[in-house]
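User: I'm curious whether this sequence folds into something compact or stays loose and floppy. Could you predict its structure so I can see for myself?
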Amino acid sequence: MKRTTDGRFVEKRIIINKDSLKRLIYSAKEQSRLTWSGLGKKCGVSSQTIRHDWLKNKTIPLSIFKKLINLSKERKKDYLFEIITPFWGQRLAHGKPKLKEVVLPDKNATNFAEFYGILLGDGCITSDFKGFSITGDKYLDHDYYHDYLKKLIRKLFKITPKIYEEKNVRAVRCIVYSKKISQYLVDAGFPIGVKYDKQPKIPKYIFNKNKNLATCIRGIMDSDGSLASHPNVKVMIHLSITIKSLRNSVHKGLKVLGINGGIFNKGIMIYGTDKIDKFYNIIGFSNFKNAYKYEKFKKTGKVPSSKEVEMFIRGKIKN
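Assistant: Here's the prediction. I'll summarize afterward.
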């Protein structure tokens, strides 16, 4: 690895979002269990370079980026970056190259309405306003997070979210770092921080179009809802919504779509085959666990338990 007389690396570099680079460095340190000095030695630089230069920068040598990826055990494709040639700053007449900008979708788009519903169900904008996160069950929601949700966010914002699976708990987290997206979501009506105190609800602009209202409720169903067996009517949907403003908003939305559900202080219940079929035909399911339960119910007349679904999903993951 060549360097200039003043210590700069003479090789291709990557340009990356500052927050993403900071996250990668901390992840590499934590996963490798190295001190700052030890991490510096692994990268061939001083701890000062890492802690005071790279943590505040947005460019690093390509070889160092690869080392950090290996140490962090993360995937390169989960980071948005560009490769640039040595001394790019001197070669560009109009200043530094720009990172690929995230795209902000039309808030009246149907797929944005579904994303908004998912965020209402299991998401939040971080209190530091640096991005958003969505949390689910790492087994039951495995396909939903690693496949469907990831693709949905890519399609909407042209950015790849990071999917984390917690080791000692059943949680999977989808995280995107972007103040620009955070501001856009706030402008679209979503609260910052803890939702419970902010009285969230489905925005009026989503209510204006039944198709968008249906996909928004689908997002809420796939994050906060479940199908279950019932001793009398065989099948029911339980939308677990403890926030009163959101519960009332969803109940109102279901009525607009012609679906009757019972509301109580912990959520909304929809009972019986006819109502569940109507829910499926108008709203539907994007989360595999719900679609699988519905499909099995239609074939056998019995709703699989969540434990049975989990065992099936675990088998798919292993294979």
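Summary: The domain at 13-89 is CATH 1.10.260 (434 Repressor (Amino-terminal Domain)). The first helix runs from residue 18 to 32.
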